[in-house]
Amino acid sequence: MGIKIDVVVDYPVDDEVERVLGLAEAVGEPVTVTFRWEGRQAAEHAVLVPAATLALWEHWAPTAYTASDAGEGERGAAEEPELAHPVEWGAFTLFRRRTGGRTAVAREGVVVAELLNPDEAHWLQEKARDVRQGFMDPKQKAAFEEFLARQASLDEQ
Predict the structure, then answer these.
(1) Of 75, 74, 77, 70, which Cα lies nearest the Cα of 123?
(2) What is the reported pTM?
(3) Taking Cα atoms as reference points, which of 86, 67, 69 lies closest to residue 78?
(4) Any alpha helices (H) in the chain, and if so which ranges?
(5) Alpha-carbon dihedral of residues 100, 118, 90, 83, nearest 10 degrees?
(6) How far apart are CA 70 and CA 28, in angstroms?
(7) In angstroms, rounded to a whole number, what is the distance separating the alpha carbons of residues 63 and 98?
(8) pLDDT by residue (tens digit) across 70-100?
(9) What is the side-by-side order of every strand in the sheet holding 103-107?
(10) Which residues of 50-59 are buried (b: 16+ CB within 10 A; e: fewer)?
(11) For 70, which DSSP code?
C-alpha cells in the first residue's frame, strides 16, 4: 500500500479526521489508517483509497471481491452492519454502506475516496496489477504480432 498513517481518535475532532481525509486526497495514493474510537476495545483498520485509484483497480480487477477470497469465512455474515447514516467531518461527509463494509468519502457532493477493508484493498490492487500486466492494447498487440512474424523460426536458427 502507499502511505501508512495511524490516527488516534479518542473524541472525534473534525480537524483531525478532515486532515487525514485531505492528505489521502492530496497524495493520490492509498493511505492505511487505524482508528481507535472511544468506548471500543478493538482498533478499526481501513485503507483510504482515492476515487480515481479505486476506479482504476475496479476496471482491471476481473471479478468482485468477496470476504471468502481473503479467508474471512463466515465472520462477515455474522456481524450486523451499522446503520448507513451520513457522518459529517468538516468539509467531508462519510456514507457507510450497509452491504460490503465500504464507506464513501464525499466533499461538496463528489466522492473523493473510499474506506475499504485492508484485505479488500490489497486484493483489488493485486488483481488489477496482474490483469493490467497481461493486457496489451490493440496497437501494441498488432506491433508485437508483427515483430513475432519477422522472427526466424526455431528450425531456421
Answers:
(1) 70
(2) 0.68
(3) 67
(4) 14-27, 51-60, 75-78, 118-133, 138-150
(5) 30
(6) 25
(7) 21
(8) 554 444 444 555 555 788 878 888 888 766 7
(9) 3-8, 31-36, 44-50, 110-116, 103-107, 92-96, 87-89
(10) bbebbebbee
(11) G
